[in-house]
Amino acid sequence: MHMKILLTNDDGYNAPGILALYEALSAAAHEVLLIAPDREKSAVSHGISLNQPMRINAITLNNGRPGYGITGTPADCVKLGLFELCPLQPPDLIISGINPGCNTGVDINYSGTVGAAREGALNQISSIAVSIRRSDKFMDFQGMSRFITGLSEKIHNFDLPDGTFLNINAPDIPINGIQGVRITRQAQDNISKQFEKRVDPKNRFYYWYGDASRIMGEIDTDVHALSQNYISITPIQCDNTDYKTMEKLSSVQLP
């Protein structure tokens, strides 16, 4: 099935993960429109550029293919792609990634990779975010790109509900070592509260976020699936309303 795919990320248009996806999707005869930030925009969540102008620059990627570099956030890339670069024929699918570094648990809230997929879902386009656990050992961008290419048609035919997208994470091993795929929920482990405290040459403290790779998570979560060398697929809703609490509040006599 031939599809039109909008491809973006939060690492910049020449990042190895997005270029690997571009090659795999193009080899499968899909029409790929790459629209990505012109520099790294990690951890910007769903931020958009309200206080500065944005520019769209036609570029030639390191793989020789054409694309667009945007002076904005991942969510800006999706908005400009949908409403400026292809307003008359929207894409069948939006893919954000492949991000070097997993986006699981509460870190989903901070991720620019996830923010781009969320923006697609808010505009009623089937969307997925894709990440690989960061490692100095191995990150199989090519293998994961083949997996996502095979998954893309199934996801498009599945017809995700409006306002729902998929957050997909893979462990840092070769694709042929993956144990399988698990459908998971978002872990609630707040891994971003871990810090490494260091001292600079002037005896002043500074901080880095710590290594959370040893956190296992509960058995049905995205974090646990990665720890067991499974690919994790988590459906994420854009609607943050707590309907149970909404119902309870309706019975409270408010002032």
What would a concise description of this structure say?
By secondary structure, this protein is α/β, with parallel strands linked by helices.
Description:
- The chain has a nine-stranded mixed sheet with strand order 3-4-2-1-5-6-7-11-8, sandwiched between helices. The protein has a two-stranded antiparallel ribbon with strand order 9-10.
- The longest helix has 18 residues, at 141-158.
- Helix 1 (16-27) packs across helix 4 and helix 2 (74-85) packs parallel to helix 3.
- The chain contains six helices and eleven strands.
- The protein has one domain (4-187, 217-250): 3-Layer(aba) Sandwich (Stationary-phase Survival Protein Sure Homolog, Chain: A), CATH 3.40.1210.10.
- It is an alpha/beta fold and 255 residues long.
- The model has no long low-confidence stretch (mean pLDDT 91).
- The chain is globular, with a radius of gyration of 19 Å.
Detail the topology: elements first, then pairings.
Blueprint lengths: L3 E5 L7 H12 L3 E7 L18 E5 L5 E5 L3 H12 L7 E8 L11 H11 L4 E6 L8 H18 L5 E7 L10 E3 L11 E5 L5 E5 L12 H6 L3 E7 L5 H8 L5
Parallel strand pairs: 1-2, 1-5, 2-4, 5-6, 6-7, 8-11
Antiparallel strand pairs: 3-4, 7-11, 9-10
